[in-house]
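name: query_chain
kind: protein
chains: 1
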Amino acid sequence: MANIVEITDFSDPSLDVYARLTEAQLLNRFEPAKGMFIAESPKVICRALDGGCEPVSLLMERKDIDGSAREIIARCPEIPVFTADEEVLCNLTGYHLTRGVLCAMRRPKLPAMEEICREASRVVILENVQNPTNVGAIFRSAAALGMDAVLLTPGCSNPLYRRSARVSMGTVFQIPWAYTGEWPGEGMEQLKNLGFKTAALALSDNSVSIDDPKLMEEGKLALLLGSEGDGLTDITIANCDYTVKIPMYHGVDSLNVAAASAVAFWQLRKQK
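structure:
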């Protein structure tokens, strides 16, 4: 039996997660075990549930109770389902709900970097990528194009931010990911101890083409992608085994990091 709760009081503390807490507050860096996130849209919510995430409550338009959210409600019969008309929900959250459904969930415990890399042959490292849309798009490409895991340096935007998870189409719950240690020192050392060769995607006088045969033959390869404005740091590039570039035409010298990631993942995927 669904636990339907009609919204009558905007000040209800149960609605804080949707109405009054920022992404940073939801992350709860000082008490990670109490951290939460918001999954947006039925597909993202279902993939989060499939990934073992624990739901706390749902927020949706009335029409979605017997519509697009019916399967989700059936899977989570005990949690409250807060509901109202679209205009009320927009006023509450401050934005238009994509497909009308949000789910507050507890943040899962992240695996250690070594755990997800031990059996991997192709991993992605994001260095200080701060745009949530780019992070989500990179995760989607990584999952679709044969990457085994994604690693993020401490300066990256969190993949469970609402926009990141939505843009990823829920693949943040399908492909393993973790944060590196101190970067590049500790993190780079861990990669090399795990047997990875490292390839920095960057323009340089000594860059090799992304389809270089030697690069393609590496058994364990970590591809590094840098921030939207500055790219990879000089110290990171200097510590990599390869510096690689995507050949381009018409005088174009770079792509958006999300677009570049898709090209590189396709080219460097490990043939099964």
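note: The longest helix spans residues 132-144.
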